[in-house]
Write a structure and sequence with these properties.
- It is a single chain.
- The protein is α+β, with helices and mostly antiparallel strands.
- Among the domains are: 61 residues, no CATH class; 338 residues, 3-Layer(aba) Sandwich (Beta-lactamase).
- The strands form 7 sheets. Strands 2, 3, 4, 5, 10, 18 and 19 form a 7-stranded mixed beta sheet that branches.
- Helix 4 crosses helix 5.
- The longest helix has 40 residues.
- It is elongated and about 115 Å long.
């Protein structure tokens, strides 16, 4: 009996020993696995964490490049369009204010007066006895902060931060865009130049590394662990501030007078492709971009919004016909007022019939059937090539965000109807910039130049890039361009472009009144885009200009875009000091 009990006790002790062994084994295994994860799997993480306890890495932030308008009459005079400016957040320590200031109501009144805020709201914040941090004002200017500092308010502090400032406000707003924040809350440019040239303007972030002392303070710099930030480049634009101001002012006046939905003006130097002015209405203030309710106002319609150009495209058709030798200015055709293509009919505006007419008359009277006649002489394949060569259907490559290419795919069909409608600007789309650039080629002896808006790029290391004009191609011959220019002078002198004329100068141009397709593709009779594109003086053009209104409350471009063109052109010949040629 005693033997059996001893045996039983030994078995119990063996079981306990086995349990202890298994526990030690499992515990040891857990430790080994944990060490494996610490030293192998997560080595980089913990190594970096340990390193961070002994070293400090700080980003060195670059200064964003600034953007300037210029004065083309003075090489050295620049006007800031986008600047960097310090702004402040004003912080109050209510406990300190109540302890150090006998009358917190007077402090609240002073702050309210300087910051243009509610005195009651500020007083409520200053009265929070347990609070040590209350935001009183945001985005406060340096001038106001300097005034407040003179008041020696105890318990008030100022937190400085960098901000983007647009001193011209709405002027050229769609050209410049704005500086906002991306999804990661980092500063980022959007739209216009701020968006397109964001990387160039942003510069490159640097860093500096230092060792910490035992208390966490900076002890010594780590040799070789420093990379200086590279500040962003400054941009000098081709846009002239005076021309931009006048063009935008005249456009705004036209919008109000005509009760138009929107409008666009583009002015270009035809000899170089440099943009002298580009404005849209409605516009916005980039300083307050976050207050814009309709985001479509951010879009630059001059490059973003293609439309059916209508009769201004007859000039492109006539360019192709003249250059290919298929017609001359005096070539005649008989207009019956109507053309039939299967079940479809093409008519002239107001259903007019003109009878025997020349090609010059086709432009002067804006005869749809005459444009069809000229296009048919060229043929669909050759006509499409001319349209391609003028730069339609592709991006121009101008330094602005969100440019679109328009759509000329209908001309690929080689169908008679598509050739016919395309000849007078229906069934195809183009942007105002593309149209301006194409007319500039005609003005410049048939030479098409790439449009550009950045004249100079100034880098932080002191070197500069000067943008040189770039010839894309010669689209039509110099002879064809001169013949067509003379025909366009007749349009202004005797046709629907009379109000575009400038006394003492020969100006050429063409009107276009195009119905706007509805959602179902059918044209809406009373809704039109009205355009005039012209250039001058005709012998040696210094400017080409497009004026466009969307849904003005008049019937034809002759009464909307043409007068606005004339007003701006009168300013241009004086400002550019162009001598009269009549």
């Amino acid at each position: 009996m005693v033997y059996q009990n001893r045996k039983k006790n030994i078995n119990i002790e063996d079981e306990r020993l086995n349990i202890i062994k298994w526990c030690v084994f499992v515990f040891g295994g857990v430790i080994i696995v944990k060490l494996f994860f610490l030293q192998v799997v997560n080595y980089n993480y913990y190594s970096k964490a340990a390193e961070n306890k002994h070293s400090l890495v700080k980003d060195l932030m670059p200064v964003r490049g600034q953007i300037y308008l210029r004065d083309i009459k003075s090489d050295n005079k620049l006007y800031p369009l986008a600047l960097n400016k310090d702004i402040y957040t004003i912080i109050a320590d209510p406990k300190t204010i109540q302890e150090k200031n006998k009358d917190i109501k007077s402090a609240a009144s002073l702050l309210a007066q300087k910051l243009n805020l509610s005195e009651d709201e500020i007083l409520a914040k200053l009265s929070k006895t347990k609070s040590r941090y209350e935001v009183i004002g945001k985005r406060v200017s340096t001038e106001i902060v300097e005034q407040l500092k003179l008041e020696n308010l105890l318990g008030i502090s100022y937190e400085r931060s960098a901000s983007r400032y647009y001193p011209e406000k709405e002027l050229a707003s769609q050209v410049v865009g704005y500086l906002g924040a991306d999804d990661k809350k980092n500063s980022h440019g959007f739209y216009g130049l701020e968006g397109y040239e964001n990387d160039l303007l942003s510069g490159k972030t640097g860093f500096i590394s230092a060792e910490r002392d035992a208390n966490g303070g900076t002890l010594t710099l780590i040799p070789g662990e420093k990379k200086e930030a590279v500040d962003g480049a400054d941009l000098i634009l081709t846009i002239d501030r005076a021309i931009e101001n006048v063009a935008c002012e005249k456009l705004r006046e036209g919008i109000v007078k005509l009760q138009a939905k929107s409008g666009t003006v583009v002015i270009m130097n035809p000899k170089t492709g440099a943009i002298l002015a580009m404005c849209n209405e409605p516009s916005f203030d980039p300083n307050n971009y976050n207050q814009v309710k309709d985001f479509r106002v951010f879009n630059n319609d001059a490059i973003f919004t293609p439309y059916e150009p209508g009769s201004v495209f007859k000039v492109i058709t006539m360019a192709a016909a003249l250059d290919s030798g298929k017609v001359s200015p005096g070539t005649t055709f008989v207009d019956t007022g109507e053309l039939k293509f299967g079940k479809y009919f093409i008519h002239n505006a107001a259903l007019k019939k003109y009878g025997l007419q020349t090609m010059t008359d086709v432009l002067k009277e804006s005869i749809n059937t005459g444009a069809v006649f000229a296009a048919q002489q060229v043929g669909s394949v050759a006509f499409k090539k001319y349209v391609d060569d003028f730069g339609f259907g592709v991006l121009s490559g101008i330094e602005l965000d969100k440019e679109t290419a328009g759509n000329i795919s209908a001309l690929n069909s080689n169908k008679d109807l598509d050739l016919a409608t395309g000849s007078f600007g229906q069934g195809i789309t183009a942007t105002p910039l593309q149209l301006t650039s194409a007319f500039a080629a005609i003005a410049n002896k048939g030479n098409l130049y790439k449009p550009y808006i950045v004249a100079e790029t100034h880098y932080s290391d002191g070197h500069k890039d000067i943008t040189m004009p770039r010839l894309v191609r010669q689209v039509i011959s110099e002879k064809a361009a001169k013949l067509l220019s003379s025909m366009l002078v007749v349009v202004v002198k005797e046709g629907h472009g009379k109000a575009a004329g400038v006394p003492g100068y020969y100006i050429g141009g063409k009107t276009g009144t195009a119905q706007i397709p509805g959602p179902n593709g059918k044209y809406v009779e009373e809704q039109t885009n009205q355009t005039f594109i012209g250039f001058g003086p005709i012998e040696d053009p210094e400017f080409v200009m497009l004026v466009k209104y969307v849904e003005p409350q008049v019937t034809y471009a002759e009464y909307s875009a043409v007068p606005t063109f004339g007003e701006i052109a009168k300013f241009l010949v004086q400002y550019l000091e162009i001598p009269p040629n009549k």
